[in-house]
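Let's practice the habit of predicting before peeking. Look at the sequence and jot down your guess about where helices and strands might fall. Then scroll down.
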Amino acid sequence: MIRFIRSIYFSERFFYALFAIAFFFLLSFWFGWLYPVNWVVSAILLILVFTELISLYRSNLLKAERILPEKFSNSDNNRVEVIIENKHVFKVFAKVIDEIPVQFQKRDFLKKLELPARDRVQFDYFLRPVQRGEYKFGGLNIYVCSILKLVKRRYIFDSEAMVKVYPSFAQMKKLDFLAMDQKISLHGIKRIRRIGHTMEFEQIKEYVRGDDARTINWKATAKQSSLMVNQFQDERSQPIYSVIDCGRVMKMPFEGLSLLDYAINSSLAFSNVALKKKDKVGLLSFSNKVDSLIKASSKLSQLNNIMEALYNVNTGFYDSDFSLLYSRLRKHIGHRSLLLLYTNFEHMSALNRQLPYLKALAKQHLLVVIFFENTELTRLNNIEPTNTSESAHQVIAEQFTHDKNLMVRELERHGIQALLTPPQKLSINTINKYLEIKARGLL
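Done guessing? Here is the structure:
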C-alpha cells in the first residue's frame, strides 16, 4: 500500500484546478449560486482523477531499459541509450529523470516525451567522465500521465546499474586507425621523413624514381634485366616501456583531467600503435614506490594487461623517488629499451635534482622525457596587459615558459630525448616521437 501511495504524484494542472475551486468557493460567500456549481465541478474533478488513476494503474503497461556500454572511455563522450515501450491503448506523456552517477554532479537531467499507443521510443545522451573507477547509476525514473495530465504514476527501472571507466580506449582506437592508414593527414599528426634505412630486409622490388641507389640489388637486376632494389622495414620486436610518474606533480589538472590521466590515455594509445608495429610494450608506474611493472611483450593479450594495470593507477601527494626507479629498471630490464618517461618539471631546480638519475638511465636505455606545457601560462603570455598587475603576471609567466624551454635544451645537452607538449596533444606528439625514433633507427 505504501509503495502504491509513493508512486502517485499530482500534476500542476490538478493543483491549478484545486486552487480555482477553492477561489470560487470563496466567491460563493457573496454569490450564492456559485456554491452548488463548485460542488459539481469538484465532483467532476474527482471523477477525472479516479479515471486517470484506474487507466494508469490497471497493470504495468510501461517498460523501460537503460542500455550501458560494457565500459566507459575516460575523457570521451560515452553514449547511454534509453528505450521506453508503451503498451497502453492510449497515448501517454512521460518525464524521464535518470539518476546519473555522483561523479558527474549533474542533477538537472530531464527528458520530456510523448509515447504513442502501443509503440516504442528511444533516445540517447552522452556522458564525459574525467575520473577512472566505478560509476553507479541510480534509478531510471519515469513519470507517466494520460492526456488529462492530472495524476502521474512513477516507474523506477534499472536501479542497480554500474559501469567501469577505463583509460581512453576511444582515443586509442582512433589513433590505431590512423596508424594503420599510411596516408596520415589529420591535423597535428605529421609524417616523419626517413633518414637512411634500417637493416631488416623486407622484399626486392622494381626500382622507381626516388629510391636510394645504394640499395640496388645487382644480382636481381642481372636476372630481371631491369633495376631491382632491396626494400627494408623498421626493425621489430624492440622493447618499449611507458614509465609513468604517479607523484604529486602529476596531480595538476587541465580541462578536468589530471596530468596523470593524460599520461595514462597516451600510454594506452601509444602501446596499441607500438604493438601494431610488432614491437614489445611494457609498463612501469612509480611514485615513492614502484606500483606496477609489466614486462615488455608483443602478445595480443598485452594490451588488455596494460589497460587493467592503468585502470588502477592513481596519484597521491608523494615526491617521486627517481633513485628507486633507476635501481628497479636496472634490476628488471637488462636489454636496451626505449623508455618513455611521463613526468612534469616546473622549475630548473626540480630537474637538476633528478638529472643524475636520468643521465644514468640514458646510458643504458634510449630515454625520452615527456613533460607538459602549462597552457594557462601560454594563454597569459598571449594577452595584452592593461595594468601593472597584469604586466607583472605576464613577466612571471614568460619566465616559467622560458624555464621549460631551458629544461628541454638541458636534457638534450646530456643526450636525453625530450618532448615538451600541451596536455591535449600528448598522445599525438608521443606517437610522432616514437615514429621519428623508429624512422631514424636510434634504438
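How did you do? Residues 388-413 form the longest helix (26 residues).
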